[in-house]
Design goal:
Elements lengths: L7 E6 L5 E2 L14 E5 L1 H7 L2 H5 L30 E3 L1 H7 L3 E6 L9 H14 L5 E4 L3 H13 L3 E6 L4 H9 L3 E5 L3 H15 L2 E2 L8 H15 L7 E5 L4 H16 L8 E7 L4 H7 L26 H10 L3 E5 L1 H15 L5 H15 L8 E6 L23
Parallel strand pairs: 5-13, 6-7, 6-9, 7-8, 10-11, 10-13, 11-12
Antiparallel strand pairs: 1-2, 1-3, 4-5
Length: about 400
């Protein structure tokens, strides 16, 4: 008899708690709010353990009992996950932090953490029989989904703002995705898909318009905790646009806690946004459960330009419940953060991740993190695709003529 691959139980509305079966294609609850996947955690205990997981292949599917794909044959993979958790000793010394780490996601295919959500979401879409998918994106998520859609032989339509970074546009087109630019922001791309999805027969896989991308993102947190010896860090910093990684981290914390695999106080979840688009920071300062639309959103870090996250109430709940916070930095500060970690640690980060480096000093000065605490930064991606953001200083030309 084949061993059960996933302990998936049902889908549950994040707002009204209505329950749905997992064997049908579904976007959101009838009330319009995001759905989340629930597992039979008692069954998970019977199927696996941290000791068992340790011997598995080093990719995100090592946690398959806590992922939504029911049969391994439906997994669409490009080797995503189990990225390194690197100590930042030089930067930590400069910042006065003795236990500073970065979860470096640039090692994933496509160079960002978006590969995880795309692998999980596309795999489940394939298992459920989706014929075509569509995604609204600022760039990197669309690129990742285009890669996995190609791998899984599912047609995909990608819609992004016309001022999105050039490299994701090129990669989406190279993957064979039907790629379109739109006059507006990611919210406008989402509205276009919503308006046309029935006629086009698209399964909408935009952020939390389906339940499964979050599950892939959850594995970042599983890995951090496993790499720390199945212990919680004190705080985790997330570059935050749509906020799905924070919602996913909180869900992962609770699942591991309920399984009894990790004990202790939950890590504080810290959202770092761009000053030019900081709806979560504004909501946090107002102690609000939801965000207002952030008009005039602008930032060089395209992944942070989300004027109203669809899952805002889930992100804010995660921040409040863990005694975390939301703050923002300027574009100049985040680019300086990229330069700073490059000089100190030999990593070339995307601007979004640079925002977290920039936030360290503010957090330290406000005594929101302590020198001895174990702090993890989500290094969400590589800076290699941001040639049109980074400005190269003029270099000295050596004269080698006779």
């Amino acid at each position: 008899m084949t061993e059960k691959y996933s302990a998936i139980k049902n889908l549950e509305c994040s707002s009204c708690n209505r329950v749905y079966p997992v064997n049908q294609i579904r976007n959101t609850c009838n009330c319009g709010q995001p759905l989340v996947v629930r597992y039979d955690l008692e069954e998970v205990k019977q199927l696996t353990s941290p000791q068992n997981i340790r011997s598995r292949a080093p990719n995100m599917w090592r946690y398959h009992e806590l992922l939504p794909v029911s049969q391994s044959k439906h997994v669409v993979s490009l080797g995503e996950g189990f990225s390194p958790l690197l100590p930042l000793k030089n930067l930590g010394l400069e910042c006065g932090l003795s236990n500073l780490f970065i979860k470096y996601e640039g090692s994933n295919v496509g160079g960002t953490f978006k590969a995880r959500g795309a692998s999980c979401g596309l795999s489940k879409a394939k298992e459920l029989g989706a014929k075509k998918v569509a995604i609204a994106t600022n760039g990197n998520a669309g690129e990742a989904w285009a890669m996995y859609a190609s791998r899984g032989s599912i047609p995909i339509t990608v819609i992004m703002p016309k001022d999105a970074q050039k490299m994701p546009q090129i990669i989406c087109n190279s993957m064979g995705a039907s790629t379109y630019l739109i006059n507006g922001m990611i919210s406008d791309a989402g509205k276009f898909i919503e308006k046309n999805k029935l006629e086009e027969e698209w399964f909408d896989v935009s952020t939390l318009k389906e339940p499964y991308r979050l599950e892939g993102k959850k594995t970042i947190t599983f890995e951090i905790i496993e790499q720390l010896g199945w212990t919680f860090p004190d705080a985790v910093l997330f570059p935050t646009g749509g906020g799905i990684a924070i919602a996913a981290a909180y869900k992962a914390f609770l699942e591991l806690q309920q399984l009894g695999w990790v004990k202790g106080k939950l890590p504080r979840l810290i959202a770092v946004q761009a000053q030019g688009c900081a709806p979560l920071e504004h909501a946090f300062l107002a102690k609000s459960p939801t965000t207002d639309f952030f008009h005039g959103a602008h930032t060089k870090a395209s992944g942070l330009r989300v004027p109203k996250p669809f899952c805002d109430f889930m992100v804010l709940e995660a921040i409040y419940k863990t005694q975390g916070l939301a703050l923002s930095v300027s574009d100049e500060e985040m680019l300086e953060g990229v330069r700073r970690i490059g000089h100190k640690e030999g990593l070339f980060l995307c601007p979004e991740a640079g925002a977290c480096i920039a936030a360290l000093q503010t957090l330290k000065e406000r005594q929101l993190i302590e020198p001895h605490e174990k702090i993890v930064i989500l290094g969400s991606g590589s800076g290699l695709k941001y040639q049109d953001v980074f400005v190269q200083n003029e270099l000295t030309v050596l004269d080698v003529s006779e």
